[in-house]
What we know:
By secondary structure, the chain is an alpha/beta fold. It contains eleven helices and 15 strands.
Amino acid sequence: MSAKIVQTRFGGPEVLELLDQEPPKPDALAADEVLVRVAFAGVNPIDVMTRTGGAMAAAGLITLPFTPGWDLAGTVEAVGSQVNTLRSGDRVFGMARFPHEGGAYAQHTIVPAADLARTPDTLTDAAAAALPLAAMTAWQAFGDTTHVTKGQRVLIIGAGGGVGHFAVQIAHHLGANVTVVAGAAKHDWLRGLGADRMLDYTDPEALAALTAEPVDVALNLIGGETGRALAAVRPGGVLISLVGAADDLRADADAAGVRVATTSVRTERAWLDQITHLAAAKALVPEVTQVFDLADAAAAHRLIETGHVQGKLVLRA
């Protein structure tokens, strides 16, 4: 048998039910798909939002019943007839079928081969499962939406979470001078990831000083902080925020001469290849704070909902 999490209704963490199933058969694969024995699945805030009926569920992309999760790492057990990039036994990781049902919270799942990359030897399966969605979001911000270059000043508000800690590493790798806003307990860790200047989000005086040295690019990952981020960007600079969060500031941004952009991650092969390359070079190192068993997915969701997780959480399948 093979276990998976199934949701038959939207609601709190208690709707995440562990069920046994027969593992998918290799002959169920489409020509471009692979069967993966999942080792670990990543847990992301969007998993929580979708669980409650928001995000992808609200957009009509997820319907009940479904198996949550998109980030996964594991081993290929079988490949479709037209798959020539992967073979049985390969260690792989990726973001499955996003924004449609990914089925990552499971011991076995079927994934399009194009959504997977071979896992670099530098990553454990747990670390690889923590990487795709958050790291591709961060890469989209600094390597696609904007093109951060050496010597630019970059601000990251909410740097201590999943996307944030990858954004710090990517901005540092690209040669930027990186200022972060995060809790004081995370400052030494963020300095080790490449941050140059740390500001405590509970210190009003420190936050007020943001406008004294305007940045070229600001990435805001915290709801309600978009206005502060805008005030910190120089004329001609860029403010990047989560989808929808910056809409009310566009008029103010236009008046300040600041371009507003949003992140909207998707399964983009070029981005997956880029984060794989960075991870192989040890320029991108996932911080896995806690590992939960698949049966404890509800506990992982409760912890995510606190809003204070450092780095990433993963489920052991």
